[in-house]
Amino acid sequence: MPRKALGFAVVVALVGGTLMANGFQCSSGTPMYESTGTIVDGRIFRRTAASQTNESLKANLEKLVELLESEELGARTAKRVAVVNPETAPCSINFSANLTEESGLLQLKAKGHSPDYVRLYLDARIDEFMVIQNEQLELRLQEATEKFERRQEALDENISSSNKSIAEHLAEDQSTTREELAERLEIEIAKRAKVAADFDHFKTLDFSPFVVIYARASNPVQVESSHGCLPWKVGLHDPK
């Protein structure tokens, strides 16, 4: 073979080998799998102009996104999967939460190399999110209950003080003052009854802030390879 032809053949061989090597590198990359889930804020369905504005609702939803993407929730999630599914090997997870403002939907995505772990992780993240929400709900209910109880105690003290004053003035036979005190006592008793009624109503309310719809993680699907190469076209080449 002439020298020029031989040189050309070597160049072609080198270029072809480089392309084949690159193609093999892309095809042999660890595949990435994605699982999705959805959380719906129940306040979307029962909000009123008097109870919550669009601005305050949006602010609350943005706080939920922050919680969903927080390191605390991530750590709790990994621990939950390890405890509940110790036989499943963990892998690095890329998690994201996106808010659809118009519908109040929180769209969740988890990506990783292991399809089994990805699905278990997203389920666990949703579960831990709801656990935290319930913990916060219990705290708010406890604080509200204590506030009602303090109001009742204060009104009970006022009623007791008014009763004592009436008794003293009855002994002194001061009719005008007695009538004024009796009227004040009626007002205090009415306030106490109103607080008691409000408290009874408060205890019957549904304070659960969320309705979880389709929250379970979807079956993971392969979306890309870990090094970012473009996926092979289906039907042309399916690397193993």
Oligomer: single chain
Helix and strand composition category: alpha+beta
Query: Number of DSSP helices?
Result: 6
Please report which band the strand proportion falls in: under 5%, 5-15%, 15-25%, 25-35%, 35-45% or over 45%: 5-15%
- Beta strands, count: 5
Unreliable sequence segments: 3-28, 47-51, 228-240
Give me the CATH architecture, please: 2-Layer Sandwich
Please tell me the total number of domains: 1
Q: Between the first and last Cα atoms, what is the distance in angstroms?
A: 38 Å
Q: What's the average pLDDT?
A: 71
Overall outline: elongated
What share of the residues lie within helices?
Answer: 55-70%
What name does the CATH topology carry? Answer: Bacterial polysaccharide co-polymerase-like
Question: What's the layout of helices and strands?
Answer:
Layout: H1 3-27, E1 31-41, H2 43-46, H3 54-68, H4 71-84, E2 94-100, E3 105-112, H5 115-172, H6 175-204, E4 210-211, E5 221-225
Antiparallel strand pairs: 1-3, 1-4, 1-5, 2-3
Helix pairs in contact: 4-5, 5-6
Tell me about this structure.
Residues 3-28, 47-51 and 228-240 have low confidence and may be disordered. This protein has helices spanning 3-27, 43-46, 54-68, 71-84, 115-172, 175-204, and strands at 31-41, 94-100, 105-112, 210-211, 221-225. It has 240 residues and is of the alpha+beta class. The protein starts with a helix and ends in a 15-residue tail after the last strand. It has a single domain (29-225), classed as Bacterial polysaccharide co-polymerase-like (2-Layer Sandwich). Strands 1, 2, 3, 4 and 5 form a five-stranded antiparallel β-sheet that branches. The chain contains six helices and five strands. Helix 4 crosses helix 5 and helix 5 packs antiparallel against helix 6.
